[in-house]
Amino acid sequence: MDRRTVLQGALGGLVGSSLVPFTRAAARAASNVSNTSNAPSASGADGAPDTSNAPSLKRLSDKIAVLSGLTDNVLVLSTGEGLLLVDSGSPGHTGALLDELRQLAGGKRVRALINTHWHPDQTGSNAALGKAGATIIAQHKSRDWMATAHYIPGEDRYQKALPQAAWPTQTFYSGGAMTAGGEHIEYGHLLAAHTEGDCYVYLRDSNVLAVGHAASPVRDPQLDWFAGGWLGGRLDALARLYQLANERTQVVPAYGPVVSRSALKAEHDVLQVIYTRMVDYLRKGYSAQDMLDAGVMKDLSRTWADPKKFVYDAFKGLWGYQDTLAPNIV
Ligand SMILES: [Zn+2]
User: Fold this and answer.
1) CA of residue 96 to ligand 1 center, whole Å
2) 13 alpha carbon to ligand 1 midpoint, in Å?
3) How far is CA 256 from the centre of its chain?
4) Out of 3.40.190.150, 3.40.50.1460, 3.60.15.10, 3.40.50.720, which CATH number does the structure's domain 3-321 have?
5) Are strands 208-212 and 250-253 parallel, antiparallel or unpaired?
6) How far, in Å, is the centroid of ligand 1 from the Cα of 255?
7) Ligand 1 centroid, distance to 212 Cα (angstroms)
8) Tens-of-pLDDT digits for all 330 residues of the chain?
9) If 245 and its partner were Cys, which of 42, 91, 261, 265 is the partner (CB 3.0–4.6 Å)?
């Protein structure tokens, strides 16, 4: 039995069933389309406290939608046997998420959930969905972070492990593939793009690419350095995602509107400028503050809400790679 067979078997009734459009109720829900909310999501590793309570829905096709507003983005694929989600939204929004899914899909069960990473805004309803029988899939290291208490340096506190029902029931190292309702789905590790356990999820037939927090077209890009995210990893990930996509791909970040692959290139290119500057400053022995003072965030193609936080996080991320950045950095 090969890996693909195992994955298909674990998804049970999803496999081989045909894609089924959302219900009439979904069409009503979809009439309130507002996918470009700039309100911050619930508090978590990636954002400010939630001030929004208005869920909104963006239809990408008659079977695929992005739910946002109450949570970071949740991608929903409807199949004849149930729903497949990418990410489960922020903590405290489980009831609202399930209500929205009921309106959207007429009570279909969530059969499978893929987490793009382990942060709270992506795993808030994992426990409820896991208890209800959903297969939960994530990169192996993301499962470790969900299953283990850990320190959060930015908040100077310890985070308890999630309850066992929230833990992924299938993990992978480099990636995997499956078929759900006739849709070919691929997912792959994005090494150190934002944490050490990020992945993309590509609905290949529908040409929809969920990228989690590996791309951030609206908010400042976040590097969770304590969990292994660093600038070089993010650059590699953005380049890989750009190659994976084409000019018609609908790219779904963890937060913000659906974008095209040009947004991936734009983020890659501005981060490349910052990376090059930072490596040059490292050669000169600069601290993070020295880099800010020297203008590392000046004259860029986009602006940052909190450039100081970004530079400090990026600087800490470079610690682990100082012997590989360039031949003349000790
Ligand atoms: Zn995140």
Assistant:
1) 21
2) 31
3) 11
4) 3.60.15.10
5) parallel
6) 9
7) 7
8) 444 433 443 454 444 445 677 864 444 444 333 333 333 333 344 654 444 567 899 999 999 999 998 779 999 999 988 999 999 999 999 999 999 999 999 889 999 999 999 999 999 999 999 999 999 999 999 999 999 999 999 889 999 999 999 999 999 999 999 999 889 999 999 999 999 999 999 999 999 999 999 999 999 999 999 999 999 999 999 999 999 999 999 999 999 999 999 999 999 999 999 999 999 999 899 999 999 999 999 999 999 999 999 999 999 999 888 777 776 655
9) 261
Cα 319–322–323 angle (5° rounding)?
Answer: 140
Ligand 1 centre and the CA of 208: distance in Å?
Answer: 20
Burial of 197 (0-12, 13-18, 19+ CB in 10 A): buried
CA of 47 to the centre of ligand 1 (A): 9
Domain residue spans in the chain?
3-321
State the distance from the centre of ligand 1 to the C-alpha of 51, rounded, in angstroms. Answer: 18
